[in-house]
Amino acid sequence: MALSIEDIKKVAHLARLEISDADASATLTKLSGILRLIEQMQAVDTTGIVPMSHSQDLSQRLRDDIVTKTNQREAFQKNAPVLGNGSTESAVAEGLYLVPKVIE
Amino acid sequence: MEWEVVIGLETHTQLKTNTKIFSGASTAFGAEPNTQACEVSIALPGVLPVLNREAVNCAIKFGLAVNAEIAPRSVFARKNYFYPDLPKGYQISQYELPVVGKGAVTIQVPAVGKNPAYEKVVNITRAHLEEDAGKSVHGAVEGMSGIDLNRAGTPLLEIVTEPDMRSAAEAVAYAKKLHELVQWIGICDGNMQEGSFRCDVNVSVRKKGSDKLGTRREIKNLNSFKFMQQAIEYETRWQIETLEDGGTIQQATVLFNPDTGETRSMRSKEEANDYRYFPDPDLLPLEVTEADKARVKAQMPELPEAMKARFEADFGLTSYDAATLTASRELTDYFVQTVSAGAEAKPAANWVMGAVSAKLNAEEKSLADSPVNPNQLASLLKRIADNTISNNAAKQVFEALWNGEKDVDAIIAAKGLKQESDSGAIEAIIDEVLKANPAMVEEFKAGKEKAFNALVGQAMKASKGKANPAQVNEILKKKLS
Fold this sequence. Notes:
The complex is a heterodimer of chains A (104) and B (481).
Chain A: H1 5-14, H2 21-41, E1 62-63, H3 73-78, E2 82-84, E3 87-90, E4 92-93, E5 96-100
Chain B: E1 3-14, E2 51-52, H1 53-65, E3 73-74, E4 76-80, E5 90-94, E6 103-109, E7 118-131, E8 135-138, E9 144-148, E10 155-161, H2 168-184, E11 197-207, E12 217-222, H3 225-244, E13 252-257, E14 262-265, E15 278-279, E16 286-287, H4 290-298, H5 304-315, H6 319-325, H7 329-340, H8 345-362, H9 374-385, H10 391-402, H11 408-415, H12 423-436, H13 438-445, H14 449-462, H15 469-480
Parallel strand pairs in B: 12-13
Antiparallel strand pairs in B: 1-10, 1-11, 3-16, 4-5, 4-15, 6-7, 7-10, 8-9, 11-12, 13-14
Helix pairs in contact in B: 1-4, 2-3, 5-6, 7-8, 7-9, 9-10, 12-14, 12-15, 13-14, 14-15
């Protein structure tokens, strides 16, 4: 499968990565190389082989449904980003984390 | 041109667990913002998810309740997107291998106008476990949005149907059925105001007879059955009008505005469907064994379907009546208690579905708030059964009970509703009536059946409504023959 510069830019946008034109063409070369490797691997006959979803051949351990976490809001919110615009205050108010306005 | 609407539903049910799906933080509703947002909920670097056993049990319960295949092995995947209420940048969900596979639910679609009520099977495509996101709060600080991550990580079971429904009524009947079922098996509290049960409805239209699906639009986040009905009806009309005007339907996500009764397209999420799912390396595959299923099954209550079959077999109820009575746990319990308190099943069914439900609907009350309890209803029905009162008088007694009076016999005595069953007394009344209405007697003898009913009416009137109508009929027939 041939990748284009547009594909690289789209994937970068989906991952919210800013990418320059120079970086985009370098990335195109690298990613195309990876896809060529995958193409080679696709030549292997995998009939009857269950797709692997995890590198360890184990199943998920389960946790009992008991509350173990206590309220650590104060500690966590000390770590919140600063408001910016010259202010060094944490972007929190009324217990909420603050982010740039979200409009739906 | 005849059009047909095609509807499928995706329902997010919030599972009734104490803790989140991947951490031991509480899921209690209404806490102060972010006081239940632990390091996993806010996605601090280095944290790892650990799956909640109870969330898995809930999924198994649902699978068993809809006769679905429960996957012996299912896989958690990352659904990648950016939004401030999703601090990890991905939602842990299930994609290719969900825990619950194909199943089915039988719904009862109520009668509308001349169209009679009917039953229909809605097929379940799948149900998968996933985590909820946080909430955005607006207005706390000017120009900013506030994020509360208490809800982040709350366990959800997303239940997806096939596009099997063909009207708003069917979609609502399915949603109601599912709403009752998840509460019946105890996996969801069903609180729609608090967002515990939210529906996304996919709507498309096509020409009747076509087997190709039209382009669908998805109505997001409906949290009331009334809004669901209105939203689907509006959306259906809009799509038909658009097509009839020569337009085309673009696939879109729309929101319903209850104030205008309209649906409108959300700011288009151009790349919304490019979620780049992949298996979450933080979680191993989930295995559910036959033993797990058996253990969960043993904890489950008798299912509505089984109870329905029992009501039909034991009480001779019709399929539709049995289904109506098993539509909710509350209703079933009320009916069963009325019967255990000594009422006959058929009249009990009729009264519960009739007078009791009508009153509750009119006053927008739930059964839990019914002023008439099953014991009182049973006492009333026993007085009809033993001929103490007529059906008509029973309605008056019921009204009195509803308005707060307690004792059926006291009401009958106070209102003088006891019916006359002494055949001597009734005979005397009838003799009077026959004497006073010779013309009617002549008409009857000349072959006018209506005259007979008129005479019954006169006798009932003469007894001030207290004569047992069956006896009046019988004695009158004898006297006129």
